[in-house]
Every structure is written in C-alpha cells, then in structure tokens.
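Title: [Solved] DUF1700 domain-containing protein 3D structure

Original question kept below for reference.
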Amino acid sequence: MHKEQFLKSLENGLKKLSQQEQEDIIQDFQEHFSIGLAEGKTEEQIADSLGSPKQIAKELLANYHIEKVKATKSTGDIFRAVWAVIGLGFFNFVIVFGPFVALLAMVFAGWVIGVAFIASPLMVLVNVVIYPATFEWFDFFFSSLLCGIGLFIAIGMFFATKALTKQFVRYLKYNVSLVKGGLKHE
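Solution (posted by the thread starter after getting help):
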C-alpha cells in the first residue's frame, strides 16, 4: 500500500472526529512516512510496519470516545464508547457487550426499585382516594417505611452509578490497550 492510499484509508476511518483532530492525526502519519523514507524504507514497508489503517482508525476512535466519556460522562457518550470498543473486533462483542448489558440491567433495576419504594406512599394515597373504605394504618406505615428504604436505595444507586461508570470506562480503556498490544505482537 502506498502512502496516499494509506492516508486516504485512514482519513476515511476518522470521519467521526473533528476536522482539527483528523488533520493532526494525518500529519503525524505523514511524519512517519517522511522519517521512514529518510531512513531508506519504501512507502510499502512503512505502511506495512504501521499496520492496517482501518484498525488504526478504529483504535483512535475508541480512544477518542473513551476520553470524551471521562470528560462529560453522558449516557450517549458511554454508548458511543462501548460501540467503538466493540468495533475493534468480534471478540470484543462478547467481552464488552456482555458485561455492559449486565451492568446496565443491574443499575436500571436498582433505580427502579428505589423509585418504586419512594413512590409507595403515593400509591397508598391513590388507593385511598379510589377506594376510601380500604384504608388501613398498616399500609400507611409500611409504605412510609418503604419510602425511607427507597431513599437510601436511591442515594446508594447514585453513588453506585457514578462508581460503576468510572470503572466501566477504565475497563474499556484496558480493553483497547489489550487489543492494541495484541495487534502489535501478531
């Protein structure tokens, strides 16, 4: 593969990055080619030593999305980072997507339980308004107890969600570095 083919393929893979970041990356790889040519290597040898431009673009996109998650921590950025890491290879689909779905299910279930417990006095009130003859003090006190437990669960889920998000981003970074290391040794 010649220099222009390599750079064009890399540029096509980096379309989701900003124009400035694309230019910086392309300039870095042009420097690789310049240094290699100065050392007497051919463009094909340099391109072969750098690896697949498509794989390089996938790795750079995955790193970009992971860094963006660290800065913003929005749900959309987390999903984009997960898909970018999964895009590094089929093996990552199993290794990243499985834990992500399990983690997402646990966090969602915890929040649902917390909110349901907090809303239980409201449900008792609705029941009393619709069926006034069914009011019992036990329902009122038990729903108040559930509301208190729900507040503790919600507070715990807030901190758990923050901690799990941080740990999952670290896991994604580790996975990307693992893929990069595995590709270098092939």
